[in-house]
Each structure stands twice: as C-alpha cells, then as structure tokens.
Amino acid sequence: MNQVLLVRYGEIHLKGLNRPFFERKLLDNIRAALAGLDAAVRFDQGRIFVEGVAAEHVEEACLRLTRVFGVHSISPALAVEKEYTAVAAAAESVMEASMKEGGRTFKCFCRRADKTFPMDSQQIDRELGHDMLERFPELRVDVREPQIKLCVEIRDRAFVYAREIMGAGGMPTGTAGRAMLLISGGIDSPVAGYMMARRGIELSAIHFYSYPYTSERARDKVVKLTELLARYAGPVKLHLVPFTEIQLAIYDRCPPKETTILMRRLMMRIAERVAEADGARALVTGEALGQVASQTLESLCVTDDAADMPVFRPLIAFDKDDIVNVAKKIGTFETSILPYEDCCTVFVPAHPVTRPSVAGLRASEAAVDFSEMIEKARAEAEVLEVN
Ligand code: ATP
Ligand code: MG
C-alpha cells in the first residue's frame, strides 16, 4: 500500500488548446510548494499524483497544497494493485481512520476509469459496502448524507480514500502576467493582492511610508503582511518608497480637504512608474466603493485619472465584513489589525472632499511641481525580495 495525494484542479478544465500550458504551470507550482518533502509529482489524465511524501509529512503537504492556486481539492489516498482483495484491505484501513474521527455512517463511491477491471463500479460498491459492515459492526449505510464517503478509483492502480480537503481554487500563479499591488498596513490591500494572485497574477508590491511620522514597526508590519501573502502568491518584489517629502508638500501647499485624494494620485503616479520598470501591466488596490471619502465613485475616478495603466480593485463590491472574513481565512487579519499608524491616517484631513472633480484635482496637483520629489522618492526606494 502506497500513500498518494490525489490533487484535482478546477477551472483549468475549461481551457482549450492552451490547457497544457496551465497544467505545466500548476505542476511547477505544486513542486515548488512541496520542496523539501521528497515529493514526486506526476500528471495523468486530468489528475495530479503526489507520491513519496513520508507519512509524518502528509498533513504538512496537504496544508501547503491548499495554498497553491489552481488546486480544487486534495485527497490523501492509498494506492494498491487493481485487485479486489487489495482494494478491500485498503478500504478497511481508510475506514478505520475515518471512524477514529467519529464517522459512523458511510456510502461507497466507486469510479472505474479502467473498464478492463472485471467488476463494474456498482458491483464494487455493493461488495465493499457488505465487507465494511461485516468488519465494523457499528457502521451503518446512509445513502443520503453519509459521514464517510468511501471512494475508490480504478485507474492504472486502485486508489482508496475518504477525505477531500478543499484547495484555494483560482488559476495557477504565473499564468496571467504581473501586477503591482499598492500595499498599506491595513486589512484590505493584502486581501486584494490575494484575490489577484488567485487569478494567476504574479505580484510586485509597493508601500509608501512617511518616516518619522510612521514608525519602523509600521514598515515591519508591511513586510510581514507581504510574507504572509507570498505563502500563496509566491515570491513578491516589495518596493518601500519614502513618501514624507511629498506628503509634507501636499500638506503645506494644497487645499486641506484635498490632501488625501492628492496623496492617492501621487501614489498611483509613482506606483505606475515602478510597475513599468518591474514588467507589471496593472495596478491593484484594496479600495471598495463607498468605504471612505477617498473611495466614492467620484474619488475613484480622480485617482484613476492619475495613472494610465488599468487599476484593478478586486474588493470594489465587497462589504468590510466580507473582506475581514477573507483576511481571517488567509491569515493576514491578525497582523493587519496591529495598531501601527499608516501614512494615510497621520495626515488625514478633518473634512475630506467626497465628490472631487478630475479637472479640479488636476489643477491642484499642477500647482506644485512634484517631478523632482517623485524622482527622489524612487531613487531612495528600498527593494526587498519577499518569500
Ligand atoms: P487598507 O485596509 O488596504 O489600508 P483602507 O480601507 O485603509 O485600505 P485607504 O487607506 O484609503 O483604504 O487606501 C486605499 C488603498 O490605497 C489601499 O487599499 C492600498 O491599496 C492603497 N494604499 C493606501 N495607503 C498606502 C500606502 N501607505 N502604501 C501603499 N499603498 C497604499
Ligand atoms: Mg489604509
């Protein structure tokens, strides 16, 4: 009996001629995720098989696989010879483990991909059901809502399993090009980055800090959030850009009620330049419609106007509660709520504009020559490879 992880993929099935490209990428990403666990990863007829992982590392391997985008679900299985007695012995061992978890009702689900196997799937189900009831007298069959789904797949070998662990879904990272995430220390932007990476995007990230108005700890928090994101998104190139001079210039020389939105425009301008140099084709933010004054429809139009690249806002229609739920699921929430100040909160005006106009903000921005400050900020940026 061999331990095997059966890995199913989701949306890639819908692909046409370029499906092998997505499958190869997924395989590469799975191999990278399982590095150090001696895993042999193989692809066969729409399924991925992971073998060679030691029994004590199976749970760790499953956990890592749940973070690989493109994986629909994972089943730790026993692989045996295509022979009924071997299947029954494996089923017994799988059943024993499931009963230890508390399961007492079951149903058999056999799929026979290899039609040369002498019993058809219904025969296997019947026979196996009978054998299990005999072996474990406390078991009952429940065809409607079984606690244990005892699955058998007859392929090049027979695979027996009862667990199905849900994966992260989405598309393999690296199949959709690169985008630049504007990451603050808040709850929203890491979730936005996660959602874009889930669609296959590779991420670069940029953070603006206003030392000494924001602390070293606020910066560390952003590095930490990027690390948490990299568990899913793969390596992220993080640009840390000093923003104090620009922020003070806005604060001193522009209308107070426009400071936040001007700051957002300048962030977009700088992010776009850095993105171009990084080979990124779009910007990503954590904005959600109506969440704050700088995220009204009018404000978003003004922010958009500062950049030529497309700006993706995957959280645009999310309620805060929904965003928090995703942040908790992906493990960024606890870090995001650490109470270190962000540059947006330090300089926030008492009465921000909620319905700014593009023409009005262009004029306010043109009143100050930011070009040298932008170049200086870029030149002084620090770049980290976050893994
Ligand atoms: P978050 O929870 O992501 O901080 P937020 O609701 O606090 O978002 P804002 O502070 O208005 O919203 O920021 C909106 C978006 O602008 C953020 O989601 C992020 O993409 C970007 N952003 C804000 N501050 C910074 C910063 N200091 N560096 C980089 N990007 C930022
Ligand atoms: Mg914020």
Structure commentary:
By secondary structure, the protein is α/β, with parallel strands linked by helices. The chain has two domains: 2-166, VC0802-like (2-Layer Sandwich), CATH 3.30.2130; 178-386, HUPs (Rossmann fold, 3-Layer(aba) Sandwich), CATH 3.40.50. The protein has helices at 19-33, 58-65, 84-100, 121-135, 188-198, 216-233, 244-253, 259-278, 297-304, 320-330, 333-336, 343-346, 358-366, 371-379, and strands spanning 2-9, 40-44, 47-51, 71-80, 105-112, 140-141, 148-154, 158-161, 165-166, 178-182, 202-209, 236-242, 283-284, 311-312, 382-386. A hairpin with a 2-residue loop joins strand 2 (40-44) and strand 3 (47-51). It is elongated, with a radius of gyration of 26 Å. Residues 184, 186, 342, 344 line the site of magnesium ion (MG).
The run of helices and strands is EHEEHEHEHEEEEEHEHEHHEHEHHHHHE
**What is the count of DSSP helices, taking H or I runs of 4+ residues?**
14
Bound molecules: adenosine-5'-triphosphate, magnesium ion
Strand content: 15-25%
> What is the CATH-assigned architecture of the largest domain?
3-Layer(aba) Sandwich
Identify the overall geometry: elongated
Could you state the CATH homologous superfamily of the largest domain?
A: HUPs
Distance between the termini: 36 Å
Helix/strand/pairing category = alpha/beta
CATH topology of the largest domain: Rossmann fold
Profile the largest sheet. 9 strands, mixed
